[in-house]
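Researcher: Please translate sequence to structure tokens.
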Amino acid sequence: MATFKQFEDITAWQKARELTKEIYKVTSKNEFSRDFGLKDQIRRASVSIMSNIAEGFERSGTGEFSHFLATAKGSAGEVRSQLYVALDQQYITPAVFENINISVTEISKMIAGLMNYLKRSGLKGTRFKHAKA
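Model: Translation complete:
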């Protein structure tokens, strides 16, 4: 895995950005747009994924980065759970549900992979450029 120079280089962040764009799109339509609680919650959860990846990257060590990645992964689970509510309320079609669910599951797996990489890597410090001796 390559060393990231900025959080925008992280594929999971890029995918989370695309997910957030899609969540905003589907929550702006029909009945979903009028369910303010669910709409706001799923939007916040999707934004939380990309925000926590970015914030963790900008912290000073792998421990903090891993902590923020764990929070991002939790937010991915939250989005998935809220998708079921949206599906059950017929705010989204089964096809839309499936597409977004696949995307958020992929992001969650990417985050888990990055967490495992950090744990095994021995990398430390700002931007994770220095290996342990």
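Researcher: Any highlights?
Model: The CA atoms of residues 88 and 94 lie 10 Å apart.
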